[in-house]
Specification:
The chain has 103 residues and is an alpha+beta fold. The protein is 21% helix and 31% strand. It contains one helix and five strands. It has a five-stranded antiparallel sheet, with no helix packed on it. It starts with a helix and ends with a strand.
């Protein structure tokens, strides 16, 4: 019985880890020229880098601004996305992506 509980605990921990990793988006690794799709919505976006040649490509990254959350840095006609990643040791990372809608 103890062995089954131990196996059950390991399975649950692995499932939680996979769900956490799957919940992360690609926004923090996006570069100028990358194409992205939003699997979330406008209130809670979940951006993923995709191949620009696919129908999934909704946006193209036109600019990346590090260490800021100032969406005014994006030019008119682009969609501004900002994110702050909080890390344990206080080395928070903030950035703004300027996204152009893909025709």
């Amino acid at each position: 019985m103890r062995i089954l509980k131990g196996i059950g605990t390991v399975v649950v921990l692995v499932a939680v880890g996979i769900a956490w990793i799957a919940g992360l988006d690609d926004a923090d690794s996006a570069e100028v020229g990358d194409c992205m799709t939003n699997h979330g919505n406008t209130i809670s976006p979940n951006l993923e880098v995709v191949d620009c040649g696919t129908a999934e490509a909704e946006f193209t990254v036109s600019a990346v601004h590090e260490d800021t959350t100032d969406t005014e840095l994006c030019s008119e006609g682009t969609v501004a996305y900002t994110e702050t990643i909080t890390r344990r040791r206080g080395s928070d990372t903030s950035f703004v992506l300027c996204l152009t809608e893909t025709p």
